[in-house]
Amino acid sequence: MKLSPDLIIFRQWGDVTLNATIVFTWAIMAFLTISSWIVTRKLSSKTVISRWQNILEILVTWIQGQIKAISHSETYRYLPFVGTLFIFIAVSNLLTIVPWYQSPTGSLSTTVALAVCVFFATPLFGIMEGGLKGYFRSYLKPTFFMLPFNIIGEISRTLALAVRLFGNIMSGSMIAGILLSVTPLFFPVIMQAFGLLTGLVQAYIFAVLAMVYIASAIQTHKRKDTKDAEH
After folding, report:
1. What is the rounded CA–CA span in Å between residue 102 and residue 114?
2. With contact defined as beta carbons under 8 Å apart, do 115 and 162 qualify?
3. How do 9-13 and 16-19 pair as beta strands?
4. Spatial CB neighbours of 109, under 8 Å, sequence gap ≥ 6
5. Between 20 and 30 A from 132 (CA), which of 47, 70, 140, 224?
6. Nearest-5° Cα angle at 138, 202 to 207
7. Per-residue pLDDT tens for 118-142?
8. What is the pLDDT of residues 178-191, one digit of tens each?
9. Which candidate, 88, 117, 119, 122, places its Cα nearest to that of 105?
10. Which among 103, 58, 105, 138 is positioned nearest to 207, based on CA atoms?
11. In angstroms, rounded to a whole number, what is the distance separating the alpha carbons of residues 141 and 137?
C-alpha cells in the first residue's frame, strides 16, 4: 500500500519524475476545465434551464453565501479563488471511488501548494482592500515588537492548513486499505462512503479557513475606515 501518490512512479527521465500526483492533478484540471466549458457554453437566462446549469447555479450561490457570511462583503472578488479551491479539493477527494485513482490531496506536496496559494492570496486581497501601507501596518499592531510573532503566525497557520488536509486524506486511505485487507467487502464499502463524506468536509473546511484568513486581512482595513468615519 502506497502512503502517498508521490511514491507511484509512471515514468522517470533522469531527475525528472512523472508520478501519480502530477498525472492525476493534471487529469482533474483537464476534467474541470472541459466540464466548465460544456456547462457554461449554453447558459440561459430563461425560466427553463438545463439540469447542469441548475446544479452550477446552486453550487455558485451556495459558495457565495458562505463567503458572504464570513467576510460580510461583496463576493465577486473572492468567489473565483475560494470557489476553485473548494471544487478542486472536493473533486479530488470524490474521485477516490474510481479504481486505481490516487487523490492528489493525499500528497503533502499538493496540500502545501494549495496552502501556499492561500498564504500569498491573503496579503494580496488585504492590499487590494486597504493598500500596501495599510495592510503591512497591521503586522506592527499592537506594537512593533509583535512583527516577528505575526509573521510566524502567518507561516504556522499555512503549515497547519497543509498538514490538516494531508493528514485527514492520507489517514482515511490507510484505514480503508487496512480494512479491505483484513475484513469482508461490506465494511470497507461503508468506510469508503464515509471517506467520501470526509473528503467533502475537508474541502469545505479548507475553503472556509482560506476565506477566514482573507477576511481577517480585509477586516483590519474596514475597522480603520469605521473608526475614521466615527471621528
Report:
1. 17
2. yes
3. antiparallel
4. 6, 21
5. 70
6. 10
7. 999 988 888 887 777 777 777 777 7
8. 666 666 656 666 76
9. 88
10. 105
11. 7
